Amino acid sequence: MYRARTPEPQSIATARAGSNIAFIKYWGVADPRINLPLNNSISMTLADLHTTTTVEWDTAGRLSSDQITIDGETATGKKAERVTEHLNLIRHLAGDRRYRARVVSRNNFPMASGIASSASAFAALTVAACAALELPFDRTRMSGIARRGSGSASRSLFGGYVEWEQGRDDATSVARQIYPAEYWTLRDIVAVVSTAEKPVSSQNGHSMAITSPFNSARVDSLYGMLQDVRNAITMRDLPRLGPVLEQDALAMHGVMMTSRPSLLYWQPGTLEVIHAVRRWREEDGLQVYFTIDAGPNVHLICEPTFEVEILKRLQKLGSVRSVITSGPGDGPQLLDKHLV
Ligand code: PMV
To answer: Per CATH, which fold does 12-181 belong to?
Structure first.
């Protein structure tokens, strides 16, 4: 008897996702197996710093393992394992599929610049891998999946201003959009002061947060700060937002520095930029505020009107090697053109 074969799902898809910069940071995990954070975090998705990823599932069974290429180089070791682990999760959610995958990924910003690429990378990987299997998951569901690859990736599933709810479990720890990108055209100017490889990845750093005596104080203080950030975004009020984002960046780095072992991501250039920002604000009235992720580079947040002046001033600081700029951008998109 003739039996119609179940059609194979569309097996290839390409997605582009923007990185994001957090105003209230994610630092520390309550459950490292699922990247359940200790607190809510709020970020701005970036338009001009993005990752494009093609996932092609090998439905014909030719590959014996996943093949991963990142920025033109075959990924091996820990990097490849992290991608395969994420693909394993998606294979599992797709009903324990056994297909291997070819993954080709490209960042439009230099990975060596020390700018976090894991947020855009795991957001793009999640969207492409799910689309290529035609999994009927909405953005919220994919935010939870992306979180498992890298916590901050949960926020890159949405555009504009985004809050990641701490949640209680795998299903509830997801991000949502607060306002779209057009709501407020803030600028993020990244002052790159070092391109050295991080001494400790943020993935490993999260589990050390609880060893700092300051960690619980930071977490306890966040309830009010999160509300301040939401209000400041609603009112598009940078003088209200700025001090809060600086305070949480410093609090997070205070936790890092006082963890056991101590994590010190700053370089001399980090301090040069921090002091310059404060001087420009206090002496010249330039409305610009800083935040710093798990690295030495400093993100300067300002309104577009101050951008040219800030770029000019950054050029005169001896420790600034290069500058990358972006405004807020949309959530991930599927593209017709594949990288394979
Ligand atoms: O997503 P991860 O594990 O790379 O952690 C990101 C941590 C910070 O960038 C320091 C803060 C944040 O909320 O993005």
So the answer is: Ribosomal Protein S5; domain 2 (3.30.230)
